[in-house]
Amino acid sequence: MATLAQRFMTNPVFSAVYEGLWRPAFTRLFSLGGPGTAEFDKALTAYLARSGDRTILDVACGPGLYTRRLAANLTSDGRCVGIDFSGAMLAQAVSKPLARTSYVRGDAHHLPFRDGAFDTVACFAALYLIPDPLPVVDELVRVTRPGGEIAIFTSVTTPVSQLPGVETIGKLAGFHFFGRHEITDRLRAAGVTRMEHTIVDQGQFVLATKDQS
Q1: Over its length of 213 residues, how does the chain's per-residue pLDDT go in tens digits?
Q2: Which strands make up the sheet holding 101-105, listed edge to edge?
Q3: CA–CA dist 62, 84 (Å, integer)
Q4: Can you list the domains of the chain with their CATH numbers?
Q5: For a Cys staple, 21 with which of 14, 17, 103, 141, CB 3.0–4.6 Å?
């Protein structure tokens, strides 16, 4: 059975207002306790969007907000590919075409790309809505080339998330609060040893480099 979050994400009406209305309001929830989450998100995205001839994968891209940002400074044959399971979200993404971007409909648990296909793989503000999310982390690692980078922005368990009723409501909606070491432990289990892990307000950011084989 689809979670409440999945139903929303596949709804054309919700998809149409996601980027302009829902996403800004939802992002503010991550900044409870300070403005740091939005600032760190902006800085990390700017780093990932640096100039160069690179291939980037944006997993669970939704309407392509991050996809377009990540593609903005690519050069030569550089390209950013967004992948999402929601046709409604992808319809919004392709309605705002940008050079060096393309979109694929697919399942993050089984990314339809060869091993080591991308220089950079990102999953921002989405992993907490994906059922059984940890195998997705394995897939992020698999499709990253040796020496490439994996970037994740997702939820983290904090005193706020443990307030009475918050975790229960989150589970009912299909929202997952990750433990502080849940993502980094999974990356290590997948063979990634070099990473920066930053917890800011109600969110966590991981920037990892895939080990050379």
Answers
A1: 555 555 555 656 555 555 554 555 555 556 555 557 888 888 999 999 999 999 999 999 999 999 999 999 999 999 999 999 999 889 999 999 899 999 999 999 999 999 999 999 999 989 988 999 999 999 999 999 999 999 999 989 887 766 676 666 666 566 788 999 999 999 999 999 999 999 988 889 999 999 987
A2: 101-105, 79-84, 55-59, 118-124, 144-155, 203-209, 194-200
A3: 6
A4: 4-209 (3.40.50.150)
A5: 17
